[in-house]
Amino acid sequence: MSKKLTKRSEDYSKWYNELVIKADLAENSAVRGMMVIKPYGYAIWEKMQAELDRMFKETGHQNAYFPLFIPKSFFSKEASHVEGFAKECAVVTHYRLKNDETGKGIVVDESAKLEEELIVRPTSETIIWDTYKNWVQSYRDLPLLINQWANVVRWEMRTRLFLRTAEFLWQEGHTAHATYEEALEEAEKMHEVYTRFAEDFMAIPIIKGVKTENERFAGALETFTIEALMQDGKALQAGTSHFLGQNFAKAFDVKFATKEGGLDYVWATSWGVTTRLIGALIMTHSDDAGLVLPPNLAPFQVVIVPIYKNEEQLNQITAKVNELSKELRAVGISVKYDDRTTHKPGWKFAEYELKGVPVRLAMGPRDLENKSIEVARRDTLKKEIISLENLTSFVKNLLKEIQENLFARAKSFRDSHVTEVDTFEEFKEVLEVKGGFISAHWDGTTETEKKIKELTKATLRCIPLNSKEEVGTCVYSGKVSNRRVLFAKAY
Amino acid sequence: MSKKLTKRSEDYSKWYNELVIKADLAENSAVRGMMVIKPYGYAIWEKMQAELDRMFKETGHQNAYFPLFIPKSFFSKEASHVEGFAKECAVVTHYRLKNDETGKGIVVDESAKLEEELIVRPTSETIIWDTYKNWVQSYRDLPLLINQWANVVRWEMRTRLFLRTAEFLWQEGHTAHATYEEALEEAEKMHEVYTRFAEDFMAIPIIKGVKTENERFAGALETFTIEALMQDGKALQAGTSHFLGQNFAKAFDVKFATKEGGLDYVWATSWGVTTRLIGALIMTHSDDAGLVLPPNLAPFQVVIVPIYKNEEQLNQITAKVNELSKELRAVGISVKYDDRTTHKPGWKFAEYELKGVPVRLAMGPRDLENKSIEVARRDTLKKEIISLENLTSFVKNLLKEIQENLFARAKSFRDSHVTEVDTFEEFKEVLEVKGGFISAHWDGTTETEKKIKELTKATLRCIPLNSKEEVGTCVYSGKVSNRRVLFAKAY
Fold first, then answer.
1. Which tens digits make up the pLDDT trace of A48-80?
2. Would the pTM count as exceeding 0.90?
3. Quick check: B438 contacting A, CB < 8 Å?
4. Opening angle at CA A229, ends A228 and A233, nearest 5
5. Do the beta carbons of residue B386 and residue B399 sit within 8 Å?
6. Residues of chain B with confidence (pLDDT) below 50
7. Which end of chain A is less enclosed by CB atoms within 10 A, N or C?
8. Domains located in chain B, CATH noted
9. Is A144 near chain B, with CB under 8 Å?
């Protein structure tokens, strides 16, 4: 397979699809809309999981596991929830196959029909709150701070690898609290955890905000979101944290004896991020040569390629590389040495460029003699020869620099793509010509929000938390507004 | 809820069920046969996962993720495989719910019927081999050494928490090789990895063996098993590694260009362990006071309980405990300090005994004065007062000693419950009165194996790898036999 990618400027969407396949991240499976996450893609997810899991535990959360299936009737208990999810559910109706008596092969055994259909979880609020009912009696049982790593299924009609798939992997936090304030604080805390993860590990600058009523999670009173901007000027919702009020507690009758001796419904939050983050990672940093991975999430941060003419040279280089690798690993740097004799150095260079390995080291006989090594950084594609003497500290600093550079580059792009507009003409023009976030006044109604979406395909991404009060008029209706909100076309 | 458990000698099965619930490991959910794994139980699974994952990676494996659903037709492709799994499959037939027009609430939308039904994976050989077909062209693409951490569904009729549940968590390794020898070696290697994990981490002595044709995995040429013995004398299959020959490669047409220029089918293995291991862990070590956890898998190895009469005392003890905890953590020991003022020390002692924490430390004002601390070990329930001076090294050694003691205790029990018998009368008597493994001659036929099971409920657990040649006559048929095999009643 050719490693050559379509250029982003030619067809961004095609570039993305090709890159996911060629960099060995994921592929479509035999099941419509479901992907196979290949080892290299999964290794990125494992890195993400490890960091997030650490952050969740540091903030007092524990992991647990709840059933894959949810009784159909549970979905009816929270009215807005069912509206949000019923349309895209995989439904289990039978529990047995059999050999067809007329020789047609394997068929569903009609005698094994379930009394009540089971839904493959699209999210777990309902089954979890049905469980919490038995766990919470008193304020002493609160808070419950629980997270689940799981797969979920949503029957999406149009799917794209990582970005929108019928099955995806995620984590879903579900917490229960004694007070309104504590639950709200928890939702905000996890919003902040997601922000730190996106910025410090994914090197993706994000905008923190809240969703409008129209874009809120089905069943939430407030949805906190982190919004990222992709290179093609489209926004991507990278994580959400929901303040659920007492909606699920009421739907599943979860009451607790308060400290004061009363009885009250429990306050709830839920929050999640998914394998879609891998799509965001790709689309934020990568270039026409392939993937560009931030060192903090790269499956391996450094690859070393030997350049040799004969076995003796290879052996000499390998001996030196083993020594260097040991030193690099000792300071926590992950290293891969590719000494395969089946592929040429040029092929390997292209391969690791495509796979976004942050730093590539190449060593030939001349380097061995000069006690030097060639260092290539993936973010800028720049190369230089450095002395072996300072290699470890050089690489350590370089990885830090690459991580920071990727963030700075993405932030500069993002900042230059937030455009204030004051008329609807301008709105449409910026959206079509420049893209990115459009900062505009909005009258606060769902009606206007929907109308703008209908006319432009832009959605109201969020009301930024840091937006300042400012008197203005709605870009569409002309009605009064007291702050700007962000619109964009979005993934 | 009372912490008092039914005694094992009274009703082992009841003891187990109560212990799983009371120690907060798991509980039944609203979905028949599916469990909720509670945080404490899940923390044990996380410990197991971490060690196994490390061992898999050290032996060259990578993780990946394959779809939850498998097209029904895939199951027909490998004949014995479908026989093994068709009877217990959850079947997805529809992909949408809707509001019933006659007001009956949410119903399945009949217009959203799938053309081909999807099966919730009971195991992933079929979907994975359908994928490998595209990954393997040449011997250069081999071996593929891939593992998946996932949930699977098997519609079991009789379920028990951890031991047999309709959904369980597991890992499934699926490897592809160029030669018979290499694949067989891989299956044996993973058999050894499971053995080391069971013995070194779970402290469960196991017997390594192979399954008879009758008990083999559906589609395997050889199934390697590790068999453990529970305290009630019943065996438990703790992990299996399968040599699949070319069966799946043929079923899914996975051929490769050999080094020699030919074309051949790929050789395969698969291997897995599940959350059932938690059941094995419980039933091997625990006692009438509750869970007993080996230090190498305990969510926390040490709990510290303060004993105080007033806040001033608590503050003094806490200051000292924080110092000690820091020292313990510095040498890699996990510590929990339970300074809750809502529960009395006696309550906490019972709680951590029930939860099997390996070492409990208790500190009161007298201890503080004497620079001493009370140390209680969970395995023997013995207590002693030791000087604070040597605490860290004392606890470190004690944890090692507990780990070894649990293994030695279980091994001594197991060894005394392998009984050689030479007549069928003896066979039945030992099975009923003593239990455990019965070492007996067998004529090698499935017919005899099935007959013995029918008459005694004992299954042929394995042909031990270390069994020596020995001339004898089959305990049931009287026919000639050249080695003993192991029978037992089993979970």
1. 999 999 999 999 999 999 999 999 999 888 767
2. yes
3. no
4. 160
5. no
6. 1
7. N
8. 12-91+119-285 (3.30.930.10), 295-402 (3.40.50.800), 418-488 (3.30.110.30)
9. no
